[in-house]
Amino acid sequence: MNKRTYGKVCCVVNCNNTQYNTKNVHFYSFSMKPHKVEQREKWIKAVRRRNADGSLWQPNKYTKICSEHFIGNAKSEHPLSPSFLATIFL
Question: Is Zinc-finger among this UniProt entry's keywords (predicted)?
Fold first, then answer.
């Protein structure tokens, strides 16, 4: 994105979902809680983004991923659920 967008925007490459152009889509933060480090790292790996210099991309406290990347259109907090990780990327 060249233009700065305010509000909820999905961080997945080529996903254009924002809070303004979608309905029935939820936006989830990458947890910063110490007990959710494993889930956060798995989400980062699943998103497969890189910085311009080739280094591994890291989300910040404002970064969101939309529900369209989770089975059932919603994330799950249960580690055995197929919706625990984002797995849908077109």
Answer: yes
Q: Where are the alpha helices (H) located in 8-85, listed in sequence order?
A: 37-47
Tokens standing for residue 87: 């797995």
Query: Please, are residues 51 and 57 in contact by the beta-carbon 8 Å criterion?
Result: yes
Q: Can you give the pLDDT at residue 43?
A: 95
CA 27 to CA 66: how far, in whole Å?
A: 4
Output phi, psi for 46, to 5 deg. Answer: -65, -35
Alpha-carbon span 59 to 49, nearest angstrom: 10
**Rounded to two decimals, what is the model's pTM?**
0.86
Question: Whole-angstrom Cα distance, residue 17 to residue 86?
Answer: 15
As given in the structure block, the two tokens for residue 79 are 């580690």
Q: Output the pLDDT for position 90.
A: 81
Centroid of chain to Cα 58: 11
What six digits make up the tokens of 65?
Answer: 């991923």
